[in-house]
Amino acid sequence: MKRKTRRHWLMKSEPDAFSIDDLERVGTEPWDGVRNYQARNFMRDGMQVGDRILFYHSNTKVPGIAGIATVASEAYPDETQFNAKSKYHDPKATREAPRWYLVDVAFERKLKRVIPLEEIKQHADQLGEEFALIRKGNRLSVFPVSAAQYDYLLSLE
DNA sequence: GCCAACGTTGGC
DNA sequence: GCCAACGTTGGC
Q1: Strand B: which nucleotides have any atom within 7 A of a protein Cβ?
Q2: EVE domain: from which residue to which, for each copy (predicted)?
Q3: Which residues have C-beta within 8 Å of that of residue A61, sequence separation ≥ 6?
């Protein structure tokens, strides 16, 4: 059954590998290569077409939120798991029992400026200490953001 | 480039 | 089922 309300998400990408500019260029991109069960479950079980995504640049000089994207497809099996030549190949995955799922992600817009992680941390009181992005040791690359957190983060733009 | 944090794997 | 070893993430 479909939910009526939209959820919000944050997805990390290393800009050297795939940046918000790359997404703008291609328009829509299958979000392949996620090999973490929790992140997979969010994509497979939580996302709906039209949900908004904060596009986060990780592992770069100024990590932070760089743009907005939307969920552009239902979840479907990540093709790279079946490809022996792919670095994302998973020998234990079969077409009958795929292990990894993804959604297509569509470009919406770049932020006027990147909102740096350093700055986001200064708003921990408003975002909540449990906010996954600023929780110590968090490495999850896909996770939900509440509507309030989403609005607050964009108010920093 | 370093390394803390954390998830996964596999031997037992 | 425990847990050491290993690999990866990602800030700094």
Answers
A1: 4-8
A2: 7-155
A3: none
Give the nearest nucleotide to A39, CA to C1': B7
Q: Considering only CA atoms, which residue is closest to the C1' of nucleotide C11?
A: A59
As a rounded value in angstroms, the CA-to-C1' distance for A60 and C11 is 9
Q: What's the half-sphere exposure (Cβ side, CA atoms, 13 Å) at A130?
A: 3
What confidence category does residue A2 fall into, taking pLDDT thresholds of 50, 70 and 90?
Answer: low
Domains and CATH numbers, chain A: 8-155 (3.10.590.10)
- Full strand arrangement of the beta sheet holding A142-145: A28-30, A104-116, A64-71, A52-57, A8-13, A142-145
Question: Is residue A41's beta carbon less than 7 angstroms from any atom in nucleic acid strand B?
Answer: no
| Tokens 């740096």 belong to residue | A116
**Closest residue by Cα to the C1' atom of nucleotide C12?**
A61
pLDDT tens across A83-101, in order? 988 989 998 899 999 999 9
Q: Closest residue by Cα to the C1' atom of nucleotide C10?
A: A59
Cβ atoms A125, A152 nearer than 8 A: no
Partner residues linked to A107 by β-bridges: A69
